[in-house]
Amino acid sequence: MAKARETPLDPAIHRVRLDKLRIFEISEAELEALERGSPESIFLNLALAVLSVAISFSVALATTKIDSDRTFYVFVIVTALGYVAGIAFGVLWLRSRRSLKSVSAQIRSRIPPEGIQQIVE
User: Fold this and answer.
1) What is the structure's pLDDT at 116?
2) Do residues 74 and 38 lie in contact, with contact meaning Cβ atoms separated by under 8 Å?
3) pTM > 0.70: yes or no
4) What is the DSSP string of the chain?
5) Domains of the chain: which residue ranges?
């Protein structure tokens, strides 16, 4: 078989050897939890966005005089819903953040401490 000619555009490949490699065995449930990923960033982004809208409407209510009752009620409702939704998304963010960390901690807890060998018969 003929060797392919190298061109100047071929990338240089450098292999670096690992000193140590740890392999974790995980259960199906843990794999599914990791596959689902972390929705925490979505919840945090929604919480911050909704709270910033609620704060903006609060400032508008505090600094301006609204003559129309209907407009005033809309501002109050948007402000109240914004605070409620912001707190709800914040709580969801905290709960989801803890659940993914607990799966990772459970997987890592199976490793025996350094220097101690466990013999499985």
Assistant:
1) 60
2) no
3) no
4) -PPPPP-TTSPP------S--------HHHHHHHHH--THHHHHHHHHHHHHHHHHHHHHHHHS----HHHHHHHHHHHHHHHHHHHHHHHHHHHHHHHHHHHHHHHHTTSPPTT------
5) 36-108
Query: What own/partner pairs with CB < 8 Å and gap ≥ 24 does 100-107 have?
Result: 100/33, 100/34, 100/38, 100/40, 103/30, 103/33, 103/34, 106/30, 107/24, 107/26, 107/30
Q: Is the pLDDT of residue 4 over 70?
A: no
pLDDT mean over 21-46? 81
Cα(104)–Cα(99) distance, rounded to whole angstroms? 9
Residue 86 one-letter amino acid: G
Q: Is-contact 99 43, C-beta < 8 A?
A: no
Q: Taking Cα atoms as reference points, which of 89, 9, 76 lies closest to residue 49?
A: 89
Tokens representing 96 are: 């989801």
